[in-house]
Each structure stands twice: as structure tokens, then as C-alpha cells.
Predict the 3D structure of the following.
Amino acid sequence: MNIEEIGQEIVEEFSMFDDWMDKYNYLIELGRDLEIIDEKYRDQQHLITGCQSRVWLSAEEKEGRIYFKADSDAVITKGIVNLLIRALSGQTAEDIINDKLDFLEQIGLKDHLSPTRANGLSSMVKQMKLYALAFKAKKG
Amino acid sequence: MNIEEIGQEIVEEFSMFDDWMDKYNYLIELGRDLEIIDEKYRDQQHLITGCQSRVWLSAEEKEGRIYFKADSDAVITKGIVNLLIRALSGQTAEDIINDKLDFLEQIGLKDHLSPTRANGLSSMVKQMKLYALAFKAKKG
Amino acid sequence: MDIQNIRNQFPILSRKVNNKPLIYLDNSATTQKPQSVIDAVSNYYTQINSNVHRGVHQLSQLATDAFEEARKSVQEFINAKEHHEVIITKGTTESINMLAWSFGEAFIKEGDEILVSEMEHHANIVPWQMLCERKKAKLKVIAVDENGVLKMQEFANLLNSNTKIVSIAHISNTLGTINPIKEIIDKAHKLGALVHIDGAQAVAHTALDMQELDVDFYSFSAHKMYGPMGIGIFYGKEQLLNKMPPYQYGGEMIDQVSFTKTTFNELPYKFEAGTPNVGGMLGLQAAIKFLSDIGLDQIKTYEDELLNYATLELQKIEGFRMIGNSPHKASVLSFLLDEIHPFDAGTILDQLGIAVRTGNHCAQPIMDKMGIPGTIRASLAIYNTTEEIDALILGIKKTQQMFL
Amino acid sequence: MDIQNIRNQFPILSRKVNNKPLIYLDNSATTQKPQSVIDAVSNYYTQINSNVHRGVHQLSQLATDAFEEARKSVQEFINAKEHHEVIITKGTTESINMLAWSFGEAFIKEGDEILVSEMEHHANIVPWQMLCERKKAKLKVIAVDENGVLKMQEFANLLNSNTKIVSIAHISNTLGTINPIKEIIDKAHKLGALVHIDGAQAVAHTALDMQELDVDFYSFSAHKMYGPMGIGIFYGKEQLLNKMPPYQYGGEMIDQVSFTKTTFNELPYKFEAGTPNVGGMLGLQAAIKFLSDIGLDQIKTYEDELLNYATLELQKIEGFRMIGNSPHKASVLSFLLDEIHPFDAGTILDQLGIAVRTGNHCAQPIMDKMGIPGTIRASLAIYNTTEEIDALILGIKKTQQMFL
Ligand SMILES: Cc1ncc(COP(=O)(O)O)c(C=O)c1O
Ligand SMILES: Cc1ncc(COP(=O)(O)O)c(C=O)c1O
């Protein structure tokens, strides 16, 4: 599936919740389910700085696709990280660079990605796109 | 005449004017009539600082009474200086220290004595009272 | 005290966030503003706006008189001896930076010592650190015990004839601790050290008396006492300020300028470079009137009751851990919930309309000392109610349910 | 352009002073504020007031977003490349003090030279004087001719490889001279010197483009461009700002603090210590919208017409002497009347409801150079009219009658 299709899938999942509690409960669940990042990546180098909830991010490229792993010390942040990874991990550099992550707006989480949020997610997305740019540059 | 009596006299003089133009014309006249200060007092030491229109002030004591001379580079300031000298010069230290210069309020010039005015008059009055205090201390 | 009447004066308190009525418990960060403060600022711009000082025309006179009257309101409010001991800044942070720089230039030399405490806000740490670096002086740190109380014995041990200044928060923004500043001032003075008090968290909660305290310098921000942002006060004793060089240059602070020699104006202007924030200052004056009309003693009594109620009730919650348990505390409730990350808790409380602050509250050293990355902080103001505390408690329980 | 419609937006313009309709000609000191600016400030306090940055709750998010949006409005308004090149200060004076200190720490050493001009405001002289004293650098002064025009040949002569920075007013607040800043910037850059422009008097009158100018630093105040007091901008090129140390310490400008090591946040926060003036910043944003809605080019055209009309008519008055006759001039009319002291003239004009400024306009060196103690200054804004110029002329004649 491409990013947009995954996004649609996520939007459908979230359409089941009619109140914010259910939505956040689901995010918490997603946060707990987030694949544990390799301990070696939980270091200063992979830390997205300047935020209240810390986010670590690692990336690698395999056969033209980029695979991300990430972690955070806050569960809700991890939940959103989970969604971002589900959408972006395993996609091509091109797609990652260009995607606008519209699905976040549709499920009412766009706010969490605002650059002024203290959760580090916007810096994480920026970092993901930078990785994609870097991999693309290396290839090209 | 004591300060209060002179003040009353001044208030009567000003009661003749029904508009501000006449009043200021009179002040300008008073400014021009101000007895010229001795050139030797127009120096840094006798200058009241921090104002737009500069004011110079000298004082001397004779037989228990204090005599002021003053000058300014602005004519309206000189006019008001003239009134102040008329009221305060030749009075006793005691009276100078205690007088509230109420007549200025009655002739609508109180504003010009506000400490935030740029004309230096409020500093001049303060300085006059300081002289009076000093002479009194010397005597006492 | 008629709290509903007080609440009605604050237009923002009737708004909703996330479809819930706003419960604003982030007052240590900034307080909300009563209508009278908002109006003081707009009336200024509607009626007498002008640049102050040296202006001959009437608007300038009106603005200058109003501005200087407002300075006198501050003087009276903190019982300073002279109105020119009240220096207008843009906030506590600028006040402390000004002090550290100017005091440093006048009084600090190699080997001198400066005392701060472990519980200080960054704004009362870093300017001193930088000063010490610049002048090769030493920054000494008074430790805090596990309850968040200043170790007064350690203070006494650190204080010596090399100590030039002690700079301590009146009230900690993280722990709520009220420090024994009178005792600190007296002890410091005995050894010839001066004292600066960071009053950012005190000024809305407790009556101040500069002369009785005999404090040398005191700083605070208008925006934490129901006044506007962008305005603050730096109080200093006249004879000290007279010995200190200006911090910024330009405008009213100058007496004479030529390219060969420049001389400076007298107090308070010496420390007020540039066009001052007249509107902000009139807002601060209105805030002072708001506080004085209720009465600082009344405010303290009410807020103490609220704090005691909240402390008692919160501590009944399983998994609740209070950070800061000084017996002398003011309107700050810093806490942790089980293993829940403060950011997560804050996010859920926000969904419930409850505004708390989470994080290190610009006081990282005390967080490090306590071995925690941050806290959830509910901080109270005069318009908060026991009902709001109850809502906070419910919110906390809901939060815990969601994460456990 | 419908000036009446513009005037109607300014509530203060319908007031009287001394029982006469206010004719406000003191715009170089500070401009009046349109209702939209006054409202932007009060709406902020009524609706979203909160401390910005790192807050999890919704008000803090709304305030932060609005604050950062306002920064972007400034970026767009001056066409800066990056929004983090826009540093928020309390005004021009603070901007220049910040620059002089921080640039000085990073780039100035003994023997270096700094260039300013004779027509500068004190705020653009004294910070450099003090820097030169501190670092044993040299302050060189570009002279001005009898018309108030910068001697460009002298500028070229003074400029050399020791020149580290040139700091010049875009528009003189005393003479109205518009300096050829593009030429100055290009010439300075050729010799490796950087350029700061004091834009306090330019920003309300002429369109700005940081990238086209290729200027290194630019400063201005909100209150001189229809915005509130207590807020200003310091623009700097990213790669330069990155090399410069912070000026004040505390709050958002800090990344990590411990008593052994402190690190600083990135741009723009590195230069923004303490709680920022969010309300003021939203007021500035509204002022920018006010200016942009009319259009800077329209404004310039209108104000130029007004200036030309005033210049022509005023010079017909016997005994009138214009101070500042540059062929490139903006909306400032500085003058003397016969031997009348400016203070006397200002007092009489004030009685007529006409607000002008008198004195040395914080630019004593140029007054000394011209051999005068001060001037009477009428400075124009977008809401002034030819009728007001006519009233000024009548007022001047009445004044002359009274003193002659
Ligand atoms: C104890 C303390 N000191 C200093 C400050 C800094 O105040 P401001 O940000 O208003 O400059 C604060 C506010 O956060 C504080 O709580
Ligand atoms: C040319 C110039 N520079 C600097 C300033 C200082 O501006 P502010 O007082 O807003 O800091 C002014 C204002 O008087 C000015 O006209």
C-alpha cells in the first residue's frame, strides 16, 4: 500500500470513535504496541531535541525503500509515532518527501504535528523527510 | 507682602485675561521684563539640568531673607520664573520652604511645574527650597 | 470573598477549550487579566498615547504623568522608599540580566562568590553563571532537601566574606516553597553580602515591603500578577543603583552625548533605555489596583485555603506523588502520577479543559536533583475555586484509568 | 486614497487638546494606533492569553501558534529569508544594544573600526561607543553636509579593511534624510564590512526587502509603525546570528542547564530570553496588516505629496528656517522660527492643539554640528492631511506674532 492508502485505512479506523476518550485510548494502545526501537538507537544522536517528550528516530534503506524505527518516552506521542511509521516506513524516498500526511488532519491529530507543539513530532517528521532526502541524494 | 498676598495679587492680575492668548502674551511680557541675571551666574554650576529650556538660578541671604535671581533661554519659562521670583524672593527661609505655590494652580500654570515637564521649573522650585533649607540650617 | 464576582472580571474564564469549560491552572506561567487591566491598556491607546518625557505637547504630558504615576503605584505597592528605585523592564528575566551585568561590572572581581539555590528558575541561574565566567568569580549553590526546603545550615556554611551577592527565589515556581527571605537577607547582610530576590512567583500572592525586608534588589513580572506581558520591575536601593553602570544605552537614559564624551541621566532613567512600554505600565498599575482592592492578605488567606484543600485531596489519590512538600508553600502543586509521563497526563487533562503545565518548568537543576525529568504542575490564582480542584482530581483519576 | 476613512480607524484622532481638535504631528516619536491594533491586543487577553512554548494545553498552543504566525507576518513584511531571522525585542534601542553587545563579543577586537554617522539617534551611537571602549576599538563618524546629507565621499574614505561594521539610520529622525543604504551596504560588503541599518524611522514609510538590500542587520520598533509599545524587531542574517552569543539568559533561550554546563537553544529563541510580549506581538501583526492593506507604495506616494506641500508652504514663511534639506527626505520637518526658542514655539502650538516635538530629538551630535540647541519638529504619518499642514502654518504665524 502507498502512503495515501494507509492513510485512508487509518482514517477509517478512527472514524469508529465518537469521542476523544476512545480516540486517545486507541492512541495509547498504539503507543504500547509500537515496536521497540533497538536500545542502541536510544542515544543522543538519534534524539529529536527541544521537546518535552523525547523522540528517538532511526532509519535505514533497503532496496529503494526507507524503514524507520522510533520511540518516545510519552505513550501518546508513541501512539502517533506508530501511525507515522505505519504510513511512512517502507515507502520510497520520493513518496516520503512529497507526502503531506493529510490523514492526520482528518483524524484530528494535525495539531500534534504543529511545529510549536512540545511533543517533538513535527521535528520527527522533518527528520524523516531529511533522511529520505539524504538517501535520495546518495542514490541520485 | 508675604507669599500668599503676592500670590493673591498675581491671581487678580491673571483674572483679567479671558483667553489663553492674552495670558501667554502676558507671560511673554513678564519673561522679557525679568531682571537680567548676573552674567557670572549663567554657568554650569547654576544650571538646572535635564530640561529642554535651561534655567539658571542664584540665591543670596540678607538679613534673614533670601533673594533669588534666575534666567532661562525660553521666554515663557522666564515669564513663569518671573512670577516665582516675585512671590519667593525676599521671603524668609521658613516661608519659602512651606509654601505650596497655590496661586499657580489658580492661574492655570500648575502644569508647568509638574516634575515631568521639560521646562525645568519644577527643578527650579525644588532648588529654591533647597537653598532655603540650607540657609536655615546654617542659621539654626 | 466573592470569588464569582472576581471571576466575572476575567473575560477569558468563561471560554471553553476542547468543548469543556476552561479550568485554568497554569497561573505560575502567566495569570489571566481582569477587564480593568485590558481596558487600561486600550484606554491608553485610545486617549493619551504619546511618547513620554521631554515632550512639550499635552498628550506627551498626559502620558508622562500617567507613566510616572504608575511608577509611584508600584513604589507604594512594594513600599519602596523612593519612586526612582523602581526601574521598569520587560520582565523578571530582563531585570535579573540587568542586575547580573550591572552589579557584576560594579562589584564583582576574580575570586568573588555568588550564591544561588538549587531550586532557581533558569533566569536566576544562567545570568550568574555567565557573570562568573566573565569575571572568574565562583557560583555556589545552596542545596535543597527532599521536601524542597532550602538547607539553611548549608546556606550559613557557604556564606563568607567573599560572598558578594545572594540571589534566591522568594517562591519556587516548581516546588511552591516559600523561602525564608528575611532570614537570608539578615544573615547575608551580617557578612557584608547583598541580596537579590527573584519575586516572579511571589508578587501576586503575598504582600511585599522592600523597606521592612531591607532587601537590596527585587525583581518581578507584570504578567504573573494579572498585568500585561512585556513589562516588569527591577527594584534596587538607591545608593547601590547609583554605583552601578547603565545596562543599555539610548534615549532618556542619556544626559549628554558627543562623540568624545557621553554622560548618563540620573535614576530611574539611567536604567531605562529606549521608549518605555507606557501602555504596559498602565496595565500594571491597573493590576496593582485589582490586587489592592481585594487585599493581598485576603488573597493569601484564600489561596492558602485552596492550597490546603487541594493538597489534602490530591494526596488521597493512589499513585499521586507531590514534588515539593515544604511546610511553607504557596499555590503551586507539582506532582507525578504513577509512571505516567507528564506530557501524557497534560494531554489528557487538556482534553478535559484543564490547563496545567508539564515539563521541567525552566528549573532543570532541581529536576535533575530530584531525579525526575519533569512534573505536572497545577498553579493557583485568586480566581480558582474548590470546584476546579475537584475537577482536577476527577481529571487525574480519569487520566490514571486511561494509562493503567 | 481615502484619508478620512483611515483617520476614522484611529480613535484618538477625534479627541481635543486644550479645547482644540488634536493635530498630531509627533509621529516620529510614536504613531497613534488604529482600532485594529488596539483590538488585537485586547482580544489576545480576552481569548487566548497564555505563556507560549512548551505548553501542552490548548491556550498555550493557541498563543504559541498566534505568536509564531505573527513572527511570520514580520518575516513576510520585511522579506526576510527565514522566520528565525526575526528576533523579537522590546524596541529599536534594545535591538541595537543586543547587536552591539553580541556582535562585539563575536567579532570585535582591539583596533577594529566601527562606522556611524553624525546624524544618528543616541540609540545608534552610545551602544557602539561603549563597545569601542570595552574592546579598544575605534568609532569613526561619517560627517553630514549643511543640507543634512551624508558625505558619501567621506564614507568611502573612512571605510577600510579594519572596518567591521557600519551602522546607519535608514531615515534620520531629526533631518528626515533618507540615506542611500543600498549603496552603503554594497560598498561596505566590498571591503568585508557588515552593515546594520537603524530602521526606526523607515518602517512605517517605505517598503522593506531584507534580501534585496542584502543587509546584515536591521532594527525597528512597533510603536513607530502603528503598533504597540514594548515590542520591536531585530533582524539578522542566519549565518551571522548563529555565530553570535546570546545577549540575555533565561527561559526559552536555554536548551540544557546544569551548574556545570549550560547550552543554548537555536534561533530565534537563543536571542529571546524570558516570557515574550505575545500581546504586543499580535498588535504588531495587526499594524503590519494595517500597513499592507493600504500598501507601502501608496503610503509613500501620499506622504511624499504631503511633505512636498508642507515644505513648499512652510518655506514661504518669513523667519522659517528648515533644518535638513536633503533631496531625499521622508515625512520629517525640522525647523527653527526666527530667534524663538523651540520650547516657546512648542508651548504655543500646543495651546492651538498642534502636537510637535521640540528639543534635540535624542540626536545631540547633529544639533551640535549645526550649531543649534534643538529644533521644532513636525513629523507626518498616513493620517495627516493638507488641512493639518495649513493649521500648522497658521499656528506658526500666530506664534511668531506673539514673540516678535
Ligand atoms: C521564579 C521565576 N523566576 C523568573 C521567571 C522569569 O519570568 P519572565 O519569563 O516573566 O521573565 C519566572 C517565570 O517563569 C519564574 O517563575
Ligand atoms: C532613528 C531612531 N533610532 C532609534 C530610536 C529608538 O527607538 P525606541 O525608543 O523605540 O527604542 C528612534 C526613536 O526615537 C529613532 O528615531
